[in-house]
Structure formats: C-alpha cells, structure tokens
C-alpha cells in the first residue's frame, strides 16, 4: 500500500461530463488539474456503465439554434464524426481521449474520495483510495470543484446544502409543493436487447417483478424496438434516500428490468421470439441528491423568465422536467415538462459555495431550487457549467480572487475568458482588447446579400399555420401553387434574441394569389432588427413549394393542435419544427445578415440573427475568401477560426436518432490562412484539410508582422456556401 500527495492548482472530484469539462476548461487556461473519478471510466451517467443520453439545451429539437459550443460542443461534434451509430463504448473513448489530450490534467480513475480536511470555510485537502492499486492519495490544491453529483466533498467540507423539495412559499414557484418534503427524482437502470437471429428462451429470475400487477403496462410505453434511454421511465427511489438506499434501489430497478423483459418475451403480446438481452445496467443512474447553496439560488422564475444575469456563464434549454416520487410504480405520467420560450441563463453565483470559500460546484449539485434543478440537471447543461467552473477557477486563481470576488468585482475577466474559449454563453459581445481583429476592417470576395432558394423539391399545403424565422427582411417572394384566393402573412417579434416563437404581432398584410402553379408572390413586410417571425396563415387553397436547400439562420415551424391526451397547459408546445435541413422556396430582399463584418466582434453563435459571414454559392464563387486589414502592421502569434457547426442540428451521444452525416455540412473542410505585410507577397500561415471541427486555434511557430490576414475556403463538407462565424488574431 502506498500513501502520497498530489499537488495541483485545481482538484476536480467527479469524472462525469461536468468534471471532464471543468478539468479541460481549467487546463486550457494554464492550470494544472487532478481529475479524480471513482469509476474505471469517464462519463458518469453517459458512460457505457449507465448509458443515459446526453441531453441539453436543444431539448430534442424543441429549442432552436441551441446546441452547446465550447468543450461540450466539441464532444458532440467529435462523437458525431467518430461514432455516428451511437456506440456507448466509442463514446467512452471520445471522452477519454479528450482528457488525455490535455497535458496539464492528471487523471486518477478508480479513486474514491472519502475524507476532506477543511476548517473555517476552507478546504485544505481531500483524500481518496485508488481501488485495485491500494493507494491512498491526498490531493492538495488552493481550490476544489465538487462535480461528484452526490456532493460528498461539499458535505464533508461543511458546505450548506438542501435535499428534497422546497415549499411553494420559499421562492413562490407554482410547481413547488405546498408542503416541503424529502422527495427527489429517482434513479434509473437501463437495458439493451438485440435480435439473435434465432429463437431465444427467457426464464425470468425469481426476483423479477410481475409488472402485470402494477400500472406499468398501462401507463408506460413498452415496445420491442426500444433500447437504453428510451426506457428512461424505469425509475425508482424518489421517496427513499438515493444514496443511503442505493443498494436497495439497484436491486428493485433490476427486478423491474427483468420483469419488463419477462413481459416482452413471455406475455405473448410482442413479436419477441428472437430477441435476447444484450446488456443490463448494474449502476443506478442517479438524478438528484444534494444541491449546494451559492450566492444565488436559481429558481423557476429565472428559467421561465430567461433572466439576463450580468454574471451569466452558461445557458440551458431543457424543460423543467419533474417526475413523480413513485417513479415506475406511479399511476401518473412518468414526467411533466414546462419549456421556457427559449434558452435561459445561469449565473456564476450559482456555481460556488456561499460558505466554503474555495469550493466550486458543477453538475446536478449546483445552487438551484428543486424546480429549477429539473432543467439544469441534464448532462450537456451540467457540462457547460463544468467548463464555466474550470475557467472560473483558473481565472480567479491567476488573479488572486475568491469565486465570490470574481463574480461580483472582476467578472469582466471571466467574460473574456469564456468568449476566448468559445464557451456556451448567450448575448455576450466579443470586446476583448487582446483580439487584434477588432481593429481591422473586413472584406470578402462575395457575400450572400440577396438570398434565394428557387429549386422546388415538392409542395406543402397550407393546412395549418407555418412560421418562418428570418434574420432580416426587406420584403420577400414566396413560390406557391394556388387555386385562387388570398394569403394572410403576419410579422411577429419573438421577444428575446434567443427565442424563435411568435410572441408579439408587429405587422401583417394580405396578398392576393391568382390561380396557377409555381407563382412567385411578393410579400411587402420589412424587419431590420433581430430575428423576425413570419407566419403564413392557414390557407388550404394555397401550397408553398419546399426545397432541399437551406439558408443560414432560417427555420420553419408548423402550428399544431393538441392531441387528445394533451391540454392547453404549460406543457403543450403548439409550434413544431418542420423541414429539417431544408425550407421553403424564397427570394429574400437585400439583407446584411451575412455580412463579412459579422466575423469580428459581435456574437459567436445565432442570437438575434445568424451572426456569420456567408459567401455566395460556390458555383459562382468557387474559392471564397474573407480578409482582415489593419492600417499599420500588427504582430500575430495565434489565429483562431470559428466555423459554422450548425447549432440548430440536434446531436446526441447514444442512439436516440441518427443524423445523416458524420461531419456537419456547414463546416469548412479545406481552407488556408495567408498573411502579408503591406504590398509584399502573401505567405502561408496554415493549411487545413478534411476539417470536422468548429474552432481551430492556429499557433504560429514564429510570430508574423502583417497588415492583411486572409482565410480562403477551398471546400465545405457539403454546404453550398462558405460560412465563417469568427476570425480572431492575437499577438
């Protein structure tokens, strides 16, 4: 048995997505990090041990232009490239390689932290036992991040926390119970099955539950084609203590799994003769336990009101998603959902302990009410919180600040670090004086200034209202078929730059449409500020032409009536995304939405517009370029290129759905960077081929003096135009 100390700038306890992103975020800021994980693999609930989908701000397509960037975004895009079929073991590899790629991270797997040395509100060390290696390791750091989920480090350090459900009177939350209780969301065990190609018997174990004696067959969806997290509702333990009773909960969940499989195989209600079990989880995936108290407790009002915190460091978009305490045995539905109108913000003040001054936290243990926790708990949101914590811990340490001092007194340091990291934060302009591009003028070989998509792939009758998200309008034309009549078109304000639903009527017009096919109809509506929502009102006599092409920043929604089992409540969303990766045949008026100047300053993701430069079609401009020009030479040692990874595309780690490409088509595949000084010749800076990344950081071995920096696109991954989100230069 060995005993030794490990000294680093930051110790991160917990190797789920929050801990992974915290460690990588801090390491990229220059800090040394010990990442301590009590399992033999990384990923937490998303790992091949548990196999929960990584859900986040896209909410399976409910929210728009919402996918995370930063480290979580990198993991999504890399997994899409390496693992398009959603193999759980390949996902494990994506995570492990991301951590191993950072030389400042020391990874300690199978290491369970059990003791904490803390007094007077300061943690001095944490000690873990590395199972199998018989090593007792003491981790010594000036700051710590509890990303363990259950929050044992914070508990042992004396951090204030809550469990269970607060009363409605605490924060005036309508979804909180009148009387507080200790109930939490329960834990889950999942299973996978496969077709063996021949009959396979199943003899249930003696402990399997007879689910015909429960409400499960009537109240839950059971189908032979479902696997893994499609059975998210196999949940239990919410009325127990999910930590103290973990073993009991595991046994009960496995009994339910085998009972469900017995029902599938032996009830005679399913075509399951050739099916066999491939995998059954043995580690309960926990949803909720301790929630530490920070300087701000995120509430239902913050989420639904989309409060724009000055110290916002991340965003979410998943619904407030709460489950009945009885879990799988409950007679009511397995979940209820309240979606915000768009993405909401999370402040830095919810990510550190209010009474332990060197304790950060990220993941499901942040400072949030039980109701607000119902949305922040999903793993992609936990991940972006982890990155914020890792960056915050490093920035604070570098500047001699406590977490509270960083949030309250020096938050500008944090904001610029987040922007430079391309982290998931909304509505924050790049004003970093270190970015030399802010002083440059921008030109391009071409710009998509009068967007048009004219080739029809079919028609769609206006049997329901259709909404169109457009970045700016000076009138537009629509290709339609008509048997005669008039079309009413409305222009709505979405209310907030990150929202994509009609909220307030701004203008409307009625257009006469004579009978005929493939008629271009002019609609005289103008909108020059943030995203406008154009609504084509239901007109069955008119059909609009669809197209397989798509314009950047545009999206189409269809209005739907509630199904018989739905009600007009906060859970019902009347607008549903249609025509994914395509749209309607349109001719837009003059627009500056895709101007070259978008690549400098501004926002690095859709927010009140697409916020990117788009060239004209490659057929017209086959090698488009965009160029920064300075009035006097600047010294450049790093160039950062941020590309369009289509954050409206819903990606996921495991097989929830199949996206029909391995590399996002909107990303540039091949490009070159060249620089010149004055009238001298162009000199190559970087050449990139077969790119599948959003953010590329080009460190120059020798700094160059330049008055011009040019990016030339030589190929995309399938998009008909070149897109660049941001072009930055640093000395």
Structure commentary:
- The longest helix has 21 residues, at 246-266.
- The chain is 17% helix and 32% strand.
- It has 731 residues and is of the alpha+beta class.
- α2 crosses α3 (88-100).
- The chain is globular and about 70 Å long.
- Strands 20, 34, 35, 36, 37, 38 and 39 form a 7-stranded antiparallel β-sheet that branches. Strands 21, 22, 24, 27, 29, 32 and 33 form a 7-stranded antiparallel β-sheet that branches.
- The two termini are 49 Å apart.
What is this entry, summarized?
This protein is 17% helix and 32% strand. Strands 20, 34, 35, 36, 37, 38 and 39 form a seven-stranded antiparallel β-sheet that branches. Helix 1 (17-28) runs parallel beside helix 10 (379-398) and helix 10 (379-398) crosses helix 12.
Work out the strand percent: 25-35%
pLDDT average, as an integer?
Answer: 95
Q: How many helices?
A: 12
Structural class: alpha+beta
Count the beta strands. Answer: 39
How many strands, which pairing sense, and closed or not: the largest β-sheet? Answer: 7 strands, antiparallel
Q: What helical percentage do the residues reach? A: 10-25%
What separation lies between the terminal Cα atoms? Answer: 49 Å
Q: Could you tell me the radius of gyration in angstroms? A: 27 Å
Overall 3D shape: globular
Query: Which segments are poorly predicted (pLDDT under 50) over 5 or more consecutive residues?
Result: none
List key phrases describing it.
7-stranded antiparallel beta sheet; 12 helices; globular; 731 residues; alpha+beta; single chain
């Amino acid at each position: 048995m060995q005993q030794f100390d490990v000294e680093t700038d930051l110790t991160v306890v917990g190797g789920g997505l929050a801990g992974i992103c915290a460690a990588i975020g801090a390491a990229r800021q220059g800090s040394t990090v010990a990442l301590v994980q009590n399992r033999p693999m990384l990923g937490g609930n998303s790992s091949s041990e548990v196999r929960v989908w990584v859900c986040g701000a896209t909410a399976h397509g409910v929210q728009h232009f919402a996918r995370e960037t930063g480290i979580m975004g990198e993991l999504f895009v890399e997994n899409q490239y390496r693992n398009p079929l959603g193999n759980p073991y390949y996902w494990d590899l994506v995570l492990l390689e991301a951590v191993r790629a950072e030389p400042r991270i020391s990874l300690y797997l199978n290491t369970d932290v059990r003791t904490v040395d803390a007094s007077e509100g300061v943690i001095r060390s944490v000690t873990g036992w590395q199972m199998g290696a018989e090593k007792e390791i003491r981790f010594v750091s000036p700051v710590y991040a509890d990303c363990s989920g259950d929050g044992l480090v914070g508990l042992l350090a004396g951090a204030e926390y809550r469990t269970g459900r607060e009363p409605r009177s605490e924060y005036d939350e309508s979804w909180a119970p009148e009387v507080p209780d200790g109930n939490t969301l329960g834990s889950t065990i999942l299973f996978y099955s496969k077709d063996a190609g021949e009959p396979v018997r199943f003899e249930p174990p003696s402990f399997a539950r007879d689910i015909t004696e429960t409400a499960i067959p009537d109240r839950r969806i059971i189908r032979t084609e479902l696997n893994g997290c499609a059975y998210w509702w196999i949940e239990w333990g919410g009325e127990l203590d999910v930590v103290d009773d973990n073993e009991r909960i595991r046994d009960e969940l496995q009994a339910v799994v085998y009972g469900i499989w017995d029902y599938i195989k032996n009830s005679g209600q399913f075509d399951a003769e050739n099916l066999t079990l491939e995998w059954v989880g043995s580690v309960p995936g926990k949803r909720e336990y301790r929630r530490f108290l920070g300087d701000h407790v995120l509430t239902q009002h913050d989420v639904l009101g989309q409060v724009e915190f000055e110290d916002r460091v991340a965003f979410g978009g998943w619904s407030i998603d709460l489950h009945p305490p009885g879990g799988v045995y409950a007679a009511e539905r397995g979940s209820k959902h309240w979606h915000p109108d768009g993405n909401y913000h999370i402040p830095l003040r919810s990510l550190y302990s209010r009474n332990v001054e060197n304790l950060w936290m990220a993941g499901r243990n942040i400072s949030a009410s039980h109701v607000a926790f119902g949305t922040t708990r999903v793993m992609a949101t936990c991940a972006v919180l982890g990155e914020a914590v890792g960056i915050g811990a490093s920035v604070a340490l570098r500047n001699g600040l406590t977490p509270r001092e960083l949030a309250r007194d020096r938050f500008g340091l944090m904001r610029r670090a987040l922007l430079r990291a391309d982290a998931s934060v909304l509505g924050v302009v790049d004003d970093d004086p270190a970015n030399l591009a802010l002083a440059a003028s921008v030109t391009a070989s071409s710009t998509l200034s009068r967007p048009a998509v004219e080739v029809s792939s079919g028609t769609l009758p206006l049997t329901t209202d259709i909404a169109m998200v457009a970045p700016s309008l000076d009138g537009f034309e629509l290709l339609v078929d008509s048997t005669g009549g008039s079309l009413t078109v409305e222009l709505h304000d979405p209310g907030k730059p990150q929202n994509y639903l009609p909220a307030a009527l701004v203008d409307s017009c009625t257009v006469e449409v004579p009978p005929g096919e493939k008629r271009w109809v002019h609609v005289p509506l103008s909108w020059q500020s943030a995203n406008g929502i154009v609504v084509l009102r239901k007109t069955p006599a008119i059909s609009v032409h669809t197209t397989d092409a798509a314009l950047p920043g545009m999206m189409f929604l269809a209005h739907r009536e509630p199904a018989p089992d739905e009600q007009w409540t906060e859970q019902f969303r009347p607008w549903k995304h249609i025509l994914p990766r395509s749209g309607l045949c349109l001719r837009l008026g003059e627009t500056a939405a895709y101007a070259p100047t978008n690549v400098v300053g501004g926002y690095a993701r859709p927010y009140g517009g697409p916020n990117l430069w788009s060239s004209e079609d490659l057929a017209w401009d086959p090698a488009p370029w965009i160029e920064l020009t300075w009035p006097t030479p600047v010294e450049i040692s790093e160039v950062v290129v941020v590309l369009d990874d289509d954050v409206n595309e819903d990606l996921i780690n495991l097989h929830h759905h199949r996206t029909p490409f391995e590399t996002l088509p909107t990303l540039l595949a091949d490009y070159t960077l060249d620089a010149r000084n004055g009238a001298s010749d162009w000199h190559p800076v970087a050449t990139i081929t077969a790119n599948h990344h959003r953010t590329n950081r080009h460190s120059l071995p020798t700094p160059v003096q330049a008055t011009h920096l040019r990016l030339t696109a030589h190929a995309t991954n399938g998009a008909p135009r070149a897109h660049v989100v941001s072009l930055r230069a640093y000395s």
